[in-house]
């Protein structure tokens, strides 16, 4: 079966369906990032405080406590599974575009490494390996850039005719 450029041959209603899905998926993804900003986890010190607590600091606006093991496992489990599905679905759409094969492969495969590094890094940071916050920041940023690029490229590809 030929996948390369298949998206261009879809009828208008299927293209509208895909575009609607990508737009709503993007709204959901970037709303999640807003939540990360709300918890101050969008910078290394805030991320460390969010997972490890701040009860040792004398003056704080909001007291935060170290997350328990059960809570951490729930966070990791739900995020790894749900974000994997997000990138599986987006990757399936990228696969049927007419983008260069190496670019498609990168956009389809890289997010799964970023998921492992981001959430594995959160776990190891929680376990006390504090430099992992930098791994989390870099991999999380890369994951977001790849998501944004993939979503935009799929939407652009929907405009092309077969």
SSE inventory with pairings:
Layout: H1 12-38, H2 44-52, H3 69-95, H4 101-126, H5 132-158
If you had to describe this structure to a student in words, what would you say it looks like?
The chain has 5 helices and no strands. The chain is mostly helical and 162 residues long. The chain has one domain (6-158). α1 packs antiparallel against α5, α3 runs parallel beside α5 (132-158) and α4 runs antiparallel to α5 (132-158). The longest helix has 27 residues, at 12-38. The protein is elongated, with a radius of gyration of 19 Å. The model has no long low-confidence stretch (mean pLDDT 93).
Summarize this entry quickly.
The chain has 162 residues and is an all-alpha fold. The chain is built from 5 helices and no strands. Helix 1 (12-38) runs antiparallel to helix 5 (132-158), helix 3 (69-95) packs parallel to helix 5 and helix 4 (101-126) packs antiparallel against helix 5.
Key descriptive features of the protein:
mainly alpha, 162 residues, 5 helices
Report the span from N to C terminus.
16 Å
What is the count of DSSP helices, taking H or I runs of 4+ residues? Answer: 5
The total number of structural domains is: 1
Kindly state the mean pLDDT as a whole number?
93
Low-confidence runs: none
Share of helical residues: over 70%
Gross morphology is elongated
DSSP strand count: 0
Structural class: mainly alpha
